[in-house]
Write a structure and sequence with these properties.
By secondary structure, this protein is an alpha/beta fold. It is built from 14 helices and twelve strands. It has a single domain (about 25-350), classed as Divalent-metal-dependent TIM barrel enzymes (TIM Barrel, Alpha-Beta Barrel). The chain has helices at about 1-10, 15-25, 65-75, 110-120, 145-170, 190-205, 235-245, 260-270, 295-305, 325-345, 350-360, 360-370, 375-385, 395-420, and strands at about 25-30, 80-85, 120-125, 175, 180-185, 215-220, 230, 250, 275-280, 280-285, 285-290, 315-320. It is globular, with a radius of gyration of 22 Å. The structure holds L-rhamnitol (RNT) and zinc ion.
Length: about 425
Amino acid sequence: MKKQKKIYASYGVDTDAALAVLKDIPISLHCWQGDDVAGFDQTGPLTGGIQVTGNYPGRATSPEELMADYEMALTLCPGAHKLNLHASYAIFSPDEPVDRDKLEPRHFASWVAFAQKHGLGLDFNPTFFSHPMVKNNLTLSSPDPTVRAFWIAHGKACLAIASHFAQATGVPCVVNFWMPDGMKDVPADRIGPRTRMKASLDEIFSAPYNHRLVFPTIESKVFGIGLESYTVVNAEFALAYAKEKGITPLVDNGHFHPTEAVSDKLSSLYLFHDHVALHVTRPVRWDSDHVVSFDDETREIAKEIVADGRLEKTFIALDYFDGSVNRIAAWIIGERNFRKALLWALLRPAERMKALQNQSNFSELLMLTEEIKTLPFGDVWNHFCNSCGVPTGEIWYQKIMDYEKKVLPLREKKVREENR
Ligand code: RNT
Ligand code: ZN
């Protein structure tokens, strides 16, 4: 590594300092990649305008399987993590399943124990989809007061659970509100549902929760499948609401028109909000939630977080679900790619480049922008993985294939028996 460090040093970049920062950046790894967003509290289809495609064998079908797979993925992802849970992953004892409006911290006791065992912070998400109380694609904005009341109770329950998570782990808990509410066709009334959404959220956030350790976020979206014409919580709603309530806006880079770039939005958001939350994904033509790639926009997002000096003010979570490939490999590939993007951002001569921009020296800036693309980045990444005790390259993949051979046949057998 001496040679590589020297090369970076010649650009004014301290490789060791970058690696030390990288290791401690928590990336919130979503539980839902492991089971195609199925969850454990109901057996109906995935709704809410999102879709998982692919039929790769071996989907986790129980809390035990999901935890085992998640554990496996974690051993191959270098650096700090949080576990991101959805309310639909509640674990009930056979005699006491409760509905989502009645969830309590104890329904997540196994997850808390799991997080504590692995030294993970916990993040949380109320689940406003895949449930019979979603009526005509509406939840908190429904014209039916019974529907709204159910989901308001769910939101409040989730704030209490998030408070418990933060206390139990000692790590702040980000609790993300994403409501799929929307319409397939052009609405006759746009402001009605938005008015009701705002009132419902106000009621949820009037509930007691730990304001010091719980960070509610609100996620916007432009459209969903079957909800093409109108989404109640669009970007304007989410930003204005977050600002008014003093909560955090969450931007998912799959939730904008395809030519919009979240990387360009971040600096504006940083100027007006204490924190910004991210769902990092890879939209392919639509909000397809492909596995995060080490691509231009992913690097550009990481570059903004680092160059704007907002690492500590950004809640980084991943949000994708691909059922067409080994699901554990998908976790690992996406997680490693975003951490790689953060390393790439930390190894930029950011201050020098900013100065060149301010001096209007665009020729030198362009030269530098292009030159740094071919520095020995891969060597530094491999060194980072090794120093975290995590294998590089194809070695980690072999471990997943060994695991697949060992556990997947058992799962297939179980599924066959259940179908009999
Ligand atoms: C959907 C949103 C949302 C979900 C998760 C499962 O478009 O991105 O964040 O993906 O809550
Ligand atoms: Zn998202």
